[in-house]
User: Fold this.
Amino acid sequence: MAYAMIAGLPVQAGLYGSALGSVSAPWFASSRFLIAGPSNATAVLLLSGMATLNIPEGQRLAVLPVLVMMVATVFLLGAALNAGVIVRYISRTVITGYVTAAGCLIVANQIKNVLGLHIARDSTLFSTVWHTLQALPETNPVALATGASTLVLYFLLRRFLPGLPHVAITLTVVTAATTALTHFAGLSFETLSAAGVGDFSLALPQVDLELCSKLASPAIAIAFLAFLESTSIAKTLAARAGDTIDVRQHMISLGIANAVSALGRGMPVSGSPARSTLNWSSGAHTPLANFISGLLVIAGIITLSPLIALIPKAGLGALVIAVGLALIDPRTIAQVVRTTRSDAATFAATAIGGILFPLDTAIFLGVLTSLLLFLHKVAQPKLVEYAFNQRGELAEKTSEQARTVPAVSIVHVEGDLFFGAADVFLEQMRLLVQTENLKVILLRMRNAHNLDASAAFAIAELVKFARQNGRDVVVSGLQPDAEAVFRRSGLLDLIGEQNIFRYTPENVTLCTRDALKRAQQIIGAEKADIILFAKPTIPED
Assistant:
């Protein structure tokens, strides 16, 4: 009901979405803890989408089924195309930052109800807090007392009677108390509206191509955000329980749940972080808990809908605040921030983005930061020269150790050699070519992965530059994937078959031995230094 209010919709849209999502999603779900239904993030995104299209609040309930059915279509198409693999590129740090920002936004959006304020709805945490602070002089003491009493009762029940449904008990007690105070003490409490809650029916949305074209952008955004949101909380709860999540199956369940919700004029269905966390903390073990909760909501709509008009907004807002606070996990945040500077920066970008911008923007900002920091790490290859010291030990070569005989330099190309690392690799190799008495560069490619056109161009430039300076290039340990890139790019012809030695799993050192023999032939001398170059181990920053 609170999420419906956030989206500027009648409360029945939230109830229908919660009920229909909960009874339909569990049959196809991958997570046993996820509670399907409306969420704070999708409610805010729904609000901004409707506002952007200039749809008046009175017409939003009529437009809603078409939008939700389009969200369902996006999910089902994504599952068919296996588009859920995108979640692999979203780190747990981004998820932690997003869940933290979502928890804060849930709290911020409900403070106005606890204080009895009437301020404009906002899509960002910063603007919500700012407008709330400006309206503080208008605080309603009765609403504040109601909200504070609700929180006290909730935390007392959770502390001393953890096995009971403390949310339901708290809301029932607070509603009974405010109703009694209204009748016997003459106090006035702002309550929810129950208009139209009992008028439920299933019907296909009226398809309008012009309307669908207008709703395409918000539908895709809501589906994407709902996918990230539900996947993040599903993965978080699965990690706590030692479970795994089938992302494709997860998308199918959300697609079906949204289609059913659209038939009943419900809100978009996501995996609710607040209710899923509550479900897990309450001791649920199977998806049946989700289905039962949906049945209970349906039963409540049928039998208790007139009583919805008695629920105080301040009490309901206080309970949503309590559940939102449960999403903010200080231990997980501390662990993420302490692990590496990259993780700390990614968490900060996501969390701060959630404060200053809408949550969908925060997700994109966190993912972009994570990818950029990763590319920064893998795109900085370094080569260290090794030689034998006076004790006969292989150690890092010092500047005083000059080469006095023709040398073969073995370069261990390790990790991903792609466009981000190609230029740096070529620059360092050019410096190597110009070193004194060097005759042959032996590229050991056994552990080189993900070569692309940029890497092929870099190696070609290296071969040409080396030969212009009286050097040559020999390749050993060439794996099938890298060989395919060499062949298609013309590198095999440029380097020459006589200088290519493929990796042989039966004898892993054979290719290097043969490559060294070939280098000896190129040098044409009886004695040669063999200098090893390798990428050093770079500690986590």
Remarks:
- Residues 2-375 form one domain.
- The longest helix spans residues 209-241.
- The first strand starts at residue 36 and ends at 37.
